[in-house]
From TrEMBL:
UniProt entry tagged with the keyword Nucleotide-binding: yes
A GO term, aspect molecular function: translation initiation factor activity
The protein's name: Eukaryotic translation initiation factor 5B
Domain annotation Tr-type G: ranges: 8-224
Keywords: GTP-binding, Initiation factor, Nucleotide-binding, Protein biosynthesis
Residues of the full protein shown: 619 to 1066 of 1191
Lineage: Eukaryota, Viridiplantae, Streptophyta, Embryophyta, Tracheophyta
Family, as annotated: Belongs to the TRAFAC class translation factor GTPase superfamily. Classic translation factor GTPase family. IF-2 subfamily.
Superkingdom in the source lineage: Eukaryota
Amino acid sequence: IKEGGENLRSIICCIMGHVDSGKTKLLDCIRGTNVQEGEAGGITQQIGATYFPAKNIRERTRELKADAKLKVPGLLVIDTPGHESFTNLRSRGSSLCDLAILVVDIKHGLEPQTIESLNLLRMRNTEFIIALNKVDRLYGWKTCKNAPIVKAMKQQNKDVTNEFNIRLTDIITQFKEQGLNTEIYYKNKEMGETFSIVPTSAKSGEGVPDLLLWLVQWAQKTMVEKLTYVDEVQCTVLEVKVIEGHGTTIDVVLVNGELHEGDQIVVCGLQGPIVTTIRALLTPHPMKELRVKGTYLHHKEIKAAQGIKITAQGLEHAIAGTSLHVVGPDDDIEAMKESAMEDMESVLSRIDKSGEGVYVQTSTLGSLEALLEFLKTPAVNIPVSEGYNEGWSDAREEKEYATILAFDVKVTTEARELADEMGVKIFCADIIYQLFNQFQVYIENIKE
Ligand code: GTP
Ligand code: MG
Ligand code: NA
């Protein structure tokens, strides 16, 4: 039990917004990492999670002298892609979180995926704060590394302040057109009805302390009930992916309860319920990204809220977006299997497939969903083969079907040679829209 007598779990926060507004870079700024620079094409194509312990948040917000009494153990931030192909992952992230950060590029204002994200959040009545990012790009901005925003603004000349005010007013108007009242956070007297805007720079850190403090204080003030820890396990599968040396693993967000090594679990699978035993509970180090390959910490047990990689046998067909259940001593496994499969219906529509079509293979289930959506669009409209994501055995009659779309996976020389022999064309890319473009050009050519 923490100070104040409340037993709170960590806050789960999702970061959303248009592509390249600076979501990952903002997290890099808080973590002191360079995840963004390592991303293919400079875009995020997976959903990720990072844990920030309370002590780091306290350090980072010290200058605000808010005497931030942190009652939560930490903050778990879920990073989502902004690219239009990944609506599925934005939806998954926003459905999991207690509150969110909506990032807007101050030079661009509201963009299509800003509005899409906004609507996803409103649909679920999720509170959010707006990070008005890239303030350092205002002409003549004077850097005040990691400073609170009011302090940083005081250092700026008249021209910068003017440009800032013009852009801010314009963006407030754009939000109003979406039916939303917004105000710069330190002037916002109607929190809850009027959404707060925190100006930030992910490059030099101005406003980042304000963003962190607002998140934690707002959550602690208005969400005590939601954040009160409960023993019953509440856990969602974020991603399913193969990790060298670990086989197929699942990345999960544990919202409540505890997981232990050796726990028997039930997960929803494409070919029926999966009953397996947790082999290892892995997390990255605090302030490191779960989706980035690195060294993992092994845990005998782990308490919510956390982002965790689980290794276990038989996870190949697990479905992201569904719940993970832990089998207790008095539980009826058959009933649990049934309830695990109840999630199936809601996700089935995303992964339906026809008998004959192209083969697709992807590194994560999230990107598979994005690829399947693309193949369904009217401009392409190509079915996917039954054996999707598993490989292929025979070439197809139709030319457009004799293809394999490989996203972010290695294609071995043998596979290439075999494909050549069989007249099967392999498209391979690690940036999703490049794969789309290659295939679309090919389809257009053979249709002519
Ligand atoms: P997706 O995940 O692909 O949707 O993009 P994102 O929102 O995560 O943006 P990302 O962090 O990839 O940043 C996009 C580009 O903007 C990168 O080149 C960053 O270096 C740059 N950038 C992000 N934030 C800032 C900022 O505050 N100031 C400046 N000058 N550049 C920024
Ligand atoms: Mg990103
Ligand atoms: Na980006």
